[in-house]
Specification:
The protein is mainly α. It contains nine helices and no strands.
Length: 239
């Protein structure tokens, strides 16, 4: 396989590190062009998957929360039934079902696999966050008494009150993205698995995967904490 322009420097660094520290580090993703391309594509696809899962979780949480809070039985009960099914289903099964529906509608591609994973993760975590919003909505209605507040205003307060739960499921969505490799989505776990199939350095390769997702989750937690603070401030102002 064609080496990368910096393969010699990578090999020299591995040799120097082993000679001076005794650590036999192997970095196959930097040595050949196919491995380097897979590695770069895996990082990009993983970041797209994480961002998409967060947006989908927020979207489904808002929609399912609003439907479960509706005073109409025709809207409320189907939404609650869907949330119950999603909460009771294994993540892998939901992922496979989402991929099956997507592949029935579109020919397989990387975008289709990533899109199916985003929908599955968004539904799973959005259903739980939506239930938290609906419960907060019911509590606010009970506490308020008297003339009902405008629905939009009350729903906004319910979202603010359930900020902690929403943030928790957003973090879960980010942490669950590597499971997308199960349906062939070319994110980083799948890319590194492909790399280790024709190169050595399995321990180093998967250690880099661990570091990548730890950093991603730390960033997501920080951003979600900013979101939680903003929502809680809205709740305090509304009160």
């Amino acid at each position: 396989m064609q080496p990368t322009p910096f393969a010699a420097q990578v090999t020299a660094f591995e040799t120097w590190l082993e000679k001076n520290t005794g650590i036999a580090l192997q970095l196959p993703m930097f040595k050949t062009v196919p491995a380097w391309q897979l590695f770069k594509a895996g990082i990009v696809n993983s970041l797209i998957l994480v961002a998409g899962a967060l947006v989908a979780t927020l979207l489904f949480a808002t929609v399912l929360g609003a439907l479960q809070s509706s005073r109409s039985l025709l809207l409320r009960w189907p939404a609650r039934a869907l949330a119950l099914v999603l909460q009771s289903s294994p993540v892998v099964l939901t992922l496979v079902m989402s991929a099956a529906v997507a592949l029935a509608l579109f020919p397989y591609s990387s975008a289709v696999a990533i899109g199916a994973a985003i929908v599955a993760l968004g539904l799973m975590n959005g259903a739980n966050a939506g239930q938290a919003i609906a419960e907060a909505m019911q509590t606010l209605r009970t506490e308020r008494g008297g003339p009902p507040a405008p629905t939009v205003e009350l729903f906004g307060r319910a979202v603010s009150r359930s900020a902690t739960q929403i943030v928790s499921f957003l973090v879960n969505a980010a942490k669950g993205t590597p499971i997308a490799s199960f349906i062939g989505a070319p994110e980083l776990l799948g890319a590194l698995t492909d790399i280790t199939s024709f190169a050595s350095g399995r321990i180093t390769t998967y250690s880099m995967l661990l570091v990548f997702y730890v950093v991603v989750v730390i960033v997501v937690v920080w951003l979600c904490d900013r979101l939680r603070v903003w929502l809680e401030r809205r709740q305090m102002v509304a009160v």
